[in-house]
User: Which sequence fits this backbone?
């Protein structure tokens, strides 16, 4: 018997639409009903585009009835992180400063999804401008972890992870600047994939830190991640940093074979405080790979310790620049009662940005001020070069690197006492963005409390295929199988 | 300004210019949004120009080509690789909150501008030429400020001279030379009234004989050649007067008000905002490879100052005429075409004279420029050759010019139809001279008695009888012979 519609993978959903077993309209109605029933508790969606989704579904069904060719994601309901710009649908990046902004254009990934037949169900919550690791920094609402609603879903793509985990969409797209896809995926028992920098266009992605941001899929299965990546990857003339490299058929990479695969284990990632259950799950994953014929290689990434410091210079510096455009004049909300132009800026930005965003703008403004560029931003960029070199060296000896995604499983709301404590939770995911390499998180176990654990795989630039192949094996051997989150109805 | 001359006895001005020139690209520097002057406000915008979230810049390669052309024309060093920089400031004319510019890695450095001063080529070193985007335009209407972003994002080059100029005339000449050069290279229309070329001047003064530069002020908004000169002169005088009364120059930006003929401080550099420059992470480095440089060098035409020198050397033109001819490329090209139409049959000097007096005079009277000339270079050359080889007189030539200019008929055909070929046949002219002298015996006597002024009368009589066709040289010869002195 087939599982309920909401637990079908994106791949299965597309297959059922293609075969005629399910109509897109029925699928969309099912999801919309489920969102109406459950999302009050989870809080994943900021906007549900019911009418638009129904219309898109009808078009798919009509196309099929007319024997027209269907796209690879035809009829698959997708939730988009609110960092992605959607024509005609409010886009806020989780910030009050963009409240009510209806973009006149679609981002490239959104265009590609639509062209592939995907149905956009709506926009999901995130930390304001992607700055956060728990989605608690959203200006709009609290999103809960479907596995334990007293805990955070992670962030900043927490809405994506919660929606995917709770069966409120078949798959989602998010953004990852320092772990924002991989960490929530780990916390919510999903697959989160950050592609190589430049693999996916950033046109129409609200910028947080331009040299680190990348769009990627957040899905229930590795195959779904491969399928989504196939659709969204590729060079885009509108993004000058996108890479002009052919897009492989990623779904073909899932051979289930890791024989002879050299898996690097960087000792630096295992020296700090890691929760025992997480450590055990990672050990189990390593053993499972060895049993399937992979070879473990102990490696060193000596500059790992500097990643956090470098990240918290580069990301806030770029953010302070990227967020300079928000003045409440051309889009978003202007403050009332301003006495003059600079008062308008001060009020609109003062009222529109949340505390974490302000903190990072301050950090970045400080780092870029005249005479300090060399001491901060430039030095941080030099550290990036060293971190990248570490990875280049390691990839001379290994095909893929394996680490925990996070030191712990999902934490409780309001449990991080200071911003720094929150930042420290991201130590394992930051280097990947600084180096521009691909990374993914795959579920690899569950704690006694029933919380998912993720393992992180890091790969060579543009070698997404090896990550997917390795992730596929991990999913098959130590993944969550048919386990569903306890916080939502099955 | 004799007043200024007195002040300048003890003080030496030092002037550097920063000139912004809009590049003549069809679309903006980083978006496909069109570039046009005078379109309705905010009609030439798109999500990128409006600074909307999620938009990314895509550099317009044509802007690079135009900037490179200026770079090679000024013999600048060109960077093989350079970066764009973000320059941050909050103002509604800059929707992103930053301007994309170049800071520590300009495209061109260490070039020079060639000026023509007193008929000689005079070099002014350039510090740099870099690429950047223009800002929008604010107009203040009562309590409101209107923002027009049509200009926002238009590709610019900023040309920065070294602080080596010492008079307002030199600075104005720098502007004229740059204006001529960018128009010559078709890099920009550089219409200052349309804001396509705008100038800021850094001005300081120091006691003559001193090496150290004085405190400078920056003059903004000097957007005509005349304003450049006026504003700088005014600022030089202001600074000298302050220093002579023991006051200090404050480093500041001053805005020139052409109506008042005075400048006022805009903002003090001490409280100036921090631009927080850093390399734009959205744009990969600009790469200028050998192939691109090759094609740019190949497209580089003979430059105006090169042509100026050639006209003097090769055609013996006066520096003034040569300078007028190179003021616009089309004018110089017209001259070259006329010169090459009948090689060796008309001197360059004569052609230049006809062009500058007759043709430009006629065009000017019609409110036309050389681009709208009804007379081709070949036609003008045909006419000048008819005069030069004696077929018609210069005076008749002018009449033929007027008719040909108006009707487009070939000069030779007009000469033929009107039968106005010059009479150079001595026997025929001798007969006419005899007639004239016989009919004016009294005057002939008076002339013989020493009344020199009457010679012109006899020439006039001969011309009258020949409808002006008599060859003036031969006529004068024969008259002298006949009149006996």
Assistant:
């Amino acid at each position: 018997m087939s599982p309920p519609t909401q637990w079908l993978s994106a791949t299965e959903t597309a297959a059922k639409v293609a075969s005629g077993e399910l109509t897109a309209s029925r699928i969309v109605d099912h999801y919309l009903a489920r969102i109406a029933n459950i999302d009050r508790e989870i809080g994943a969606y900021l906007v549900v585009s019911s009418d638009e989704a129904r219309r898109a579904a009808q078009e798919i069904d009509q196309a099929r009835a007319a024997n027209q060719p269907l796209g690879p994601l035809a009829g698959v309901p997708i939730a988009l992180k609110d960092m992605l710009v959607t024509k005609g649908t409010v886009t806020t990046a989780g910030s009050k400063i963009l409240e009510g902004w209806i973009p006149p254009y679609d981002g490239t990934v959104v265009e590609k999804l639509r062209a592939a037949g995907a149905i956009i169900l709506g926009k999901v919550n995130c930390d304001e401008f992607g700055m956060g690791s728990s989605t608690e920094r959203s200006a709009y609402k609290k999103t809960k972890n479907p596995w334990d609603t007293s805990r955070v879903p992670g962030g900043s793509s927490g809405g994506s992870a919660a929606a995917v985990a709770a069966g409120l969409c078949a798959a989602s797209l998010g953004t990852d600047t320092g772990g924002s896809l991989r960490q929530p995926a780990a916390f919510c028992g999903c697959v989160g994939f950050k592609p190589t920098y430049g693999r996916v266009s950033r046109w129409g992605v609200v910028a947080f830190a331009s040299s680190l941001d990348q769009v990627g899929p957040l899905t229930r299965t590795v195959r779904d991640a491969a399928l989504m990546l196939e659709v969204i990857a590729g060079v885009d003339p509108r993004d000058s940093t996108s890479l002009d490299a052919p897009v492989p058929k990623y779904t073909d990479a899932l051979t289930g074979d890791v024989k002879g695969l050299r898996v690097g284990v960087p000792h630096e990632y295992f020296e700090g405080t890691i929760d025992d259950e997480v450590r055990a799950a990672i050990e189990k994953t390593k053993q499972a790979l060895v049993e399937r014929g992979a070879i473990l290689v102990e490696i060193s990434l000596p500059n790992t310790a500097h990643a956090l410091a470098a990240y918290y210079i580069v990301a806030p510096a770029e953010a302070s620049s990227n967020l300079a455009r928000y003045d409440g004049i051309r889009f978003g909300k202007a403050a009332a009662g301003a006495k003059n132009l600079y008062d308008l800026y001060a009020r609109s930005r003062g009222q529109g940005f949340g505390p974490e965003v302000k903190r990072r703008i301050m950090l970045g403004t400080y780092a870029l001020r005249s005479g300090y560029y060399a001491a901060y931003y430039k030095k941080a960029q030099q550290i990036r070069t060293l971190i990248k070199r570490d990875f280049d060296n390691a990839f001379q000896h290994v095909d893929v690197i394996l680490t925990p995604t996070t030191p712990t499983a999902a934490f409780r709301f309001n449990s991080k006492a200071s911003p720094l404590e929150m930042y420290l939770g991201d130590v394992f995911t930051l280097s990947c963005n600084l180096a521009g390499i691909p990374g993914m998180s795959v579920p690899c176990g569950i704690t006694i409390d029933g919380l998912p654990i993720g393992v992180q795989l890091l790969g060579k630039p543009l070698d997404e295929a090896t990550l997917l192949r390795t992730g596929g094996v991990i999913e098959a051997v130590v993944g969550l199988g048919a386990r569903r989150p306890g916080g939502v109805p099955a | 300004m004799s007043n200024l001359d007195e002040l300048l006895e003890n003080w030496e001005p030092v002037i550097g210019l920063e000139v912004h020139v809009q590049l003549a690209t069809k679309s903006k520097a980083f978006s496909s949004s069109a570039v046009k002057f005078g379109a309705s406000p905010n009609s030439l915008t798109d999500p990128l120009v409006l600074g909307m979230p999620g938009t990314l810049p895509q550099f317009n390669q044509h802007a690079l080509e135009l900037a490179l052309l200026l770079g090679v024309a000024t013999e600048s060093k060109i960077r093989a690789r350079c970066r764009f920089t973000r320059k941050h400031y909050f103002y509604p004319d800059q929707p992103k909150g930053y301007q994309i510019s170049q800071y520590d890695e300009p495209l061109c450095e260490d070039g020079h501008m060639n000026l023509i001063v007193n008929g000689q080529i005079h070099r002014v070193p350039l510090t740099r030429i870099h690429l950047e985007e223009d800002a929008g335009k604010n107009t203040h209407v009562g309590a409101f400020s209107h923002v027009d972003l049509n200009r926002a994002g238009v590709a610019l080059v900023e040309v920065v001279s070294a602080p080596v100029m010492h008079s307002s005339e030199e600075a104005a000449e720098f502007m004229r030379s740059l204006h001529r050069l960018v128009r010559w290279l078709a890099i920009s229309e550089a219409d200052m009234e349309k804001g396509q070329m705008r100038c800021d001047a850094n001005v300081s003064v120091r006691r003559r004989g001193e090496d150290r530069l004085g405190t400078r002020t920056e003059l903004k908004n000097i957007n005509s050649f005349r304003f450049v000169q006026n504003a700088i002169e005014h600022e030089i005088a202001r600074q000298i007067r302050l220093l002579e009364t023991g006051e200090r120059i404050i480093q500041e930006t001053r805005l020139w008000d052409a109506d008042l003929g005075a400048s006022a401080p805009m903002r003090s550099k001490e409280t100036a905002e921090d631009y927080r420059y850093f390399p734009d992470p959205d744009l990969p480095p600009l790469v200028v490879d050998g192939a691109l440089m090759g094609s740019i060098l190949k497209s580089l035409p003979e430059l105006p100052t090169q042509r100026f020198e050639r006209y003097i050397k090769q055609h013996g033109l006066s520096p003034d005429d040569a300078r007028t001819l190179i003021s616009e490329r089309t004018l110089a090209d017209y001259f070259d075409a006329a010169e090459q139409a009948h090689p060796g049959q008309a001197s360059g000097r004569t052609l230049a004279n006809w062009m500058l007096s007759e043709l430009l005079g006629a065009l000017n009277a019609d409110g036309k420029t050389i681009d709208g000339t009804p007379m081709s270079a070949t036609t003008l050359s045909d006419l000048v050759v008819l005069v030069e080889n004696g077929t018609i007189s210069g005076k008749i030539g002018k009449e033929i010019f007027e008719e040909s200019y108006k009707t487009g008929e070939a000069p030779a055909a007009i000469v033929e139809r009107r039968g106005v070929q010059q009479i150079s046949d001595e026997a025929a002219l001798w007969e006419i001279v005899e007639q004239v002298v016989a009919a004016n015996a009294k005057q002939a006597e008076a002339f013989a008695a020493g009344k020199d002024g009457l010679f012109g009368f006899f020439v006039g009589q001969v011309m009258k009888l020949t409808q002006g066709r008599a060859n003036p040289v031969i006529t004068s010869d024969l008259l002298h012979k006949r009149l006996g002195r």
Chain A touches chain B at residues 84-85, 91, 93, 98, 101, 103-105, 107, 202-207, 209-211, 237-241, 317-318, 320-321, 323-327, 329-331, 341-342, 345, 365, 368-370, 373, 377 (CB under 8 Å). Chain A has a mean pLDDT of 96.
